[in-house]
Amino acid sequence: MSAPEDGDRKPAADTKPAVSIARKQTNRRRVLRTILLTGGVLGAATSGFLPLIYSKKQRLRPPGALDEKDFLASCIKCGQCVQVCPVQAIKLADLVDGMGVGVPMIDAREQACDFSCDAVQCILACPTGSLTYHKPEFLPVRSGAQLSAKPILLAKEKDAEPTLNLNERMGVARLVRPEACLAIQGKGFKGQTRGPGFKGKLRYMDVDRWKPIKIADHPYDIGECDLCVRECPIKGAISIETVFAPDGSQRKSPVVHEPCVGCGVCEMVCPVEPTAISIEAREVWKV
Amino acid sequence: MSDLLKRRFREQIKIMFGWEPSKPEKISERAQEVHVLKRMTNKQDLQAAKAHQRAHQETSNKWRNRRWATLIFANLLFTLSFALDIQILEGALTASRFVGFHLIDLNSALQVMLAHKHIINNLLIGTGTVLVLWVLLGGRTFCSWVCPYHLLAEWAEKIHLFLARKKLVTDQTMDRRLRTVFWIVFALLALLTGYTVYEAISPTGIVSRALIYGPGLAMLWVLALLFFEVFFSRRAWCRYACPIGLTYGVVGIISPVRIKYKLDGCFHEGDCRKVCLVPHVLDTVIKGRAVEPEVPIGPDCTRCGLCVDTCPTGSLSFEIKGLQKLL
């Protein structure tokens, strides 16, 4: 544009036409409506923070998840981890979970991660590094979250590479209701753990290594209950030990060891209601 | 590109960010000639020509049908990939893998990058691929051809227009600069709080995940938005709020796929502006406003093709810039 043409342009202030009263009112209403919509949308958006403030409950995240804050920041909520899981252990959180809408979590009692994919495929599927084999260096590892060695997956113990590529635990199993534990009571278990209607699946190596089946289709008949130990997919994570009860008498009890990754299989298979053993999500190993 | 079109190009970007279109200050000689000739036309002749054109107009839904088919197909592919485990398009609209290739929604990627402040290779690859894809395909083409909320909103719009005809509702318009404000606010919220705040309310993400993984309570928010659009403000979310639209709009600035307006045949009846989601991009079809005989439509256009379908004179058409030269 050349200068004379610019000179032809009238100054903006003079060109404003007179505005009628009705028009002014319409404009004012429009501004109010706009402010209203702004408030509405931002209100809805920030309401996502509320459950964060209120909820202290830790959710079990898929293996390889970053610490909660980083996890929520980096998850793009696409559900690719959901899609690759062979036992459909991963679910996406809903509206009530605030910032976590669409973020993956595991309800171990309903369906635990039994590593029947062998390779922690959900980590492989994650496009943003929310689930990761190698944490970036600037993210700290909480003390006790680090596994002392790569966990050995019993299912592939005889393979050339028997370990899972997992550095941190998802949580730790804890005997939360010892009084209900069948092993402690010296009782056995016969039948379908969790009942005939239970939909949870588990890989049984003696059935099919590559095809997890319903727990309901695999009834047990055990003299002394050791289901949590028997089905634990990780080597050396849990065992039945003889321990001293508070009254000084000896008894059997499941004992969780350091290799526990917090996958939740013990919680899923525990036959008593509610479960005697459960995963404390994001809990670290305390010596 | 003439200086006039360059100036218009810049102005269209401002309009996308929320400024109102204004009358052009200067119009090319060729365009001015057409404008003058149109004014000189005898009224009876003009009426007769309009009537003739109307009589021969074929009501067509060609582009709408193609678009709906594409949109439904794309979203169905997500759903079926998971439901039938055919693994063609795994994931959701926020991030997915098309036969193994990462695809990541630009706005979601931006939110994650700002909140997490760490970018891994897969995120970069997926975002880059999608960026190239939508630069080629037209930016906001994403909105009307892929976004599942767009389709729901289009149906809600039909109800709104029906109610409006019955004089039961009126469209409450708002200030379009709001969308730019939202874009900045959500970017800042992600950066400062470290949470992908927008993703928690994004109807695109919520509807996409609902289609693939089953609906949850989050759909209530989507229903509330649709309710608002039916009874209060036509297409409010897409017009005044959605930051995804703005992100893809910016991508579309340099896109070769666009709608082209031809001045000479146009009767300036404004049917196109009535069906348009973003009528401010069609300011050029108003009598006396076109600066050149042929004017490309700006980047905020979603390339939905409703105006192309509805135009009785064929004055609006799809164009791929540079294709003519290549062929």
3D structure, described in words:
The complex is a heterodimer of chains A (287) and B (327). Chain A has 287 residues and is α+β, with helices and mostly antiparallel strands. In chain A, 25% of the residues lie in helices and 14% in strands. Chain A contains ten helices and ten strands. Chain A has helices at residues 3-8, 12-15, 21-46, 50-54, 68-74, 80-84, 121-125, 182-185, 227-231, 265-269, and strands at 90-92, 104-106, 171-175, 189-191, 201-202, 213-214, 220-222, 238-244, 250-256, 277-281. In chain A, the strands form five sheets. A two-stranded antiparallel sheet of chain A has the order 1-2. A two-stranded antiparallel sheet of chain A has the order 3-10. A two-stranded antiparallel sheet of chain A has the order 4-7. In chain A, strand 8 and strand 9 (250-256) form a beta hairpin. The longest helix of chain A has 26 residues, at 21-46. The radius of gyration of chain A is 28 Å and the shape is elongated. Chain A starts with a helix and ends in a 6-residue tail after the last strand. Residues 1-11 of chain A have low confidence and may be disordered. Chain B is mainly alpha-helical and 327 residues long. Helices cover 58% and strands 8% of the residues of chain B. Chain B has 17 helices and six strands. A three-stranded antiparallel beta sheet of chain B has the order 1-2-3. Chain B has a three-stranded antiparallel beta sheet with strand order 5-4-6, with no helix packed on it. In chain B, a hairpin with a 2-residue loop joins strand 2 (95-98) and strand 3. The relative contact order of chain B is 0.16. Classes of the chains: A alpha+beta (287), B mainly alpha (327). Chains A and B meet through helix 3, helix 5 and helix 6 of A and strand 1, strand 2, helix 5, helix 6 and helix 9 of B.
